[in-house]
Amino acid sequence: MESHAKVVVIGGGVVGCSILYHLAKLGWQDVVLLERSELTSGSSWHAAGVIHTINSDPNIARLQGYTINLYKELEELTGQSCGIHRPGGIYLASTPERLDYLKQERAKARYMGLETDFISLEHARELNPLIDPSKYLGALFEPMDGHVDPSGVTHAYAKGARHYGAKVHRNTPVLETNPRPDGGWDVVTPTGTIHAEIVVNAAGLWAREVGRLAGIDLPVQPMEHHYLITDMIPEVRDHGKEVAVTVDYEGNAYTRQEHDGLLLGTYESNCVPWAVAGTPLDFGHELLQDDLGRVTERLEMAFDRMPALARAGVKKVINGPFTFGPDGNPLIGPVPGLRNYWTAVGVMAGFCQGGGVGLCMAEWMVNGEPSIDIWGMDIARFGEFATRDWGTIKSAENYSRRFILTYPNETLPAGRKQKTTALYDRLVGKGAVMGVSYGLEHALWFARSPGEAVETPTFRRSNAFDHVAEEVRAVREAVGFIEIANYSKHEVRGPGAGAFLDRMLANRLPKPGRIALTPMLTPKGKLYGDLTVARLDEETFYLFGSGVAQNMHRRWFEMHLPPEGVVYRNKTDELHGIAIAGPRSRELLARLTRTDVTNSGLKFRDIRKMVVGNIPATVVRVSFSGELGYEFYCAPGYQLALYEALEREGADLGLRPYGGRALMSMRLEKNWGVWTTDFRPDFTAAESGLDAYVAFDKQADFIGKAAAQAERQQGPGKKLVTMVVKTEDLDCVADEPIFHDSTCVGYVTSGSFGHTVGKSLAMGYVPAVLAADGTKLQVELLGHFYDAEVTARALYDPDGVKMRR
Ligand SMILES: Cc1cc2nc3c(=O)[nH]c(=O)nc-3n(C[C@H](O)[C@H](O)[C@H](O)COP(=O)(O)OP(=O)(O)OC[C@H]3O[C@@H](n4cnc5c(N)ncnc54)[C@H](O)[C@@H]3O)c2cc1C
Description:
By secondary structure, the protein is of the alpha+beta class. The chain contains 21 helices and 37 strands. Strands 1, 2, 8, 9, 10, 11, 17 and 18 form an 8-stranded mixed sheet that branches. An 8-stranded mixed sheet has the order 5-6-4-13-14-15-12-16, with helices on both faces. Helix 2 (58-78) crosses helix 10 (350-367) and helix 13 (465-477) packs across helix 18. It binds flavin-adenine dinucleotide. Flavin-adenine dinucleotide binds at residues 10-16, 34-37, 41-44, 46-50, 173-174, 202-206, 210, 225, 227, 318, 320-322, 347-352.
């Protein structure tokens, strides 16, 4: 065995083999895969092999499309059959809400260029003669769907990888992974040690155990999963063509043809996490004891909807484990806090996603960044809060809800209160409906009393609507406060801090006591951050940004840190805080501090350390609502005192709390985008309009400068616009297609009702030629086409007078 490799991939399941294949295909030949037994010795060998494109994240859906299309190419390259069957897939709805969901999926498919469309129930029965159309309200058809042979696919990837020069060592368990001073890893096996520049944990069912070898706990959990294979069913045998793959959501069942019978699988609500303490090292090609009692109720539902199934005998029952992540999506990429250690774990649909995961991992390693935004799969969306136990709880929740509808305004109940602030009980006592972001509870909106603090899950406007309107009014007319513990705070200090940040950030650095807004770019000029940089003194900087992106940004900063002269810290958990906003916010602040907070004492975009309400705080004069506003950051231990002081002094000024929903409404009225939706690595500075904050003429060669300059000369092909959408009882959320002259030209990235301007608003990317003020467009929402119009200037205070007064 070799003693050195550029990359060692641990695990010869479908995911590890796909990564190896893609690395080798992109030209890295010094790459090795180590498999403890034979290939497919984890969950890969007993998969049902169903392939489909539908995923709530359009980029993951795209990667699933890539995976499916890859199989033919793999077969041609390797001569290894992947057992491809593509009879298409039917998605059945039997409630109006599920039909709405399918309309949303069809809408997304339009801008992804997929042929997904509704078919009549009669047509659905022609594709699957077992279904009883009277049980359903609608059927969506996806021609790409089908199934593959799991073992054939895994071996085809391995064969393809070898074809491009990669090496596969079977019967080579990895016993230890030890970090080296040079940043690489010693990968220890019984037959020798490989010095790897990069290690990839693709150990599937053993992801947790392999993670422990590097000292990390991964929040993934194998779950037991049943499917059964029937004896011959006459309707299937006599169908004349292959029966379409079918998903019956309310029946909680998926089926595909297997010989002359069917394979039927289900995701039961009383699901069983498997091997919670750890996957046995000697587990391999065996199955788990089946427990049909657990799925009987589900099977009866399926029998009711596909009566021929009830008459069929059961040939075989499979109960096998496969690994889930907390939100059902994979955890891939470099692990924040470790050098050159990558994961591709929690891939619960390896035959739909394995190709895309392999492609992104390889692009990321070889080119420095994946070609599309893979935030939905990035391991950095989890952090310390995602303990193993939390991972088990959330992964089980995700498994049990696989076919259960989750509405866009719904927050899921399992694993809540994992992380709270000192204000949690106070806010809940005020009627807060809490959401969660990066493990931390935060207020979404406030009901009139705790007893009313429940939101109806819906695709349309919810019972929160009027409450959010009141919160917005309070901010616009008096003063409101919002907890901002969920913003990220990064500290960069030291003699080299200025030079370091000048290279990391695209804008010019502020002077001491001032802040600046700045995009952070990748070398290819894609957005990698939308941050506020504050300079406390010559050598100390704070960066404020999106809380969910804190680990991703930490990874980015640490990856680029010079060997000395700069100290970086993620201070998010050390600085909590409260923001106040509204025309009376200065009056409130003046009551709380002896510092001069007049417009000349504390100017717009100033940052000061000062005493506020008796506690030491860092105050930033900034506004994300468009009103005069201030952010107060303090150590968590002071936050309750700050809160009580604000309440005490603000009562007669009309102070009231507001939540994240009101903030989203107000920022849309200002045409301001946010990270993870409107701003993300799918877009560039010029496309997003953040080029207004790029100092093209600054001396420092900031990351992405050349790409941003080139794009500036050429002009961006698409632009982020704000639209007024003429809807009635619903608003855009994200991913709704945008049309011009009946052609799909883009998609919505975020939307909400603008309560001050009284209009439904949305942001989205459209071709630059359609970005002019007044351009008439249409947006498809739940199957209806609504007129929309671009509003280039913010509808609320377009000149920003209010926040500067
Ligand atoms: C019953 C069932 C039905 C399913 N149906 C579908 C379906 O229809 N469609 C779909 O897309 N997916 C399906 N899946 C899921 C699919 O099987 C998984 O997504 C996929 O197998 C994950 O592959 P993997 O490579 O991540 O993990 P695994 O297949 O578990 O592979 C991990 C590999 O790592 C090796 N390994 C572990 N530790 C070490 C070590 N220390 N050193 C060296 N090697 C090591 C193991 O031996 C193993 O070969 C199903 C799964 C089950 C159980």
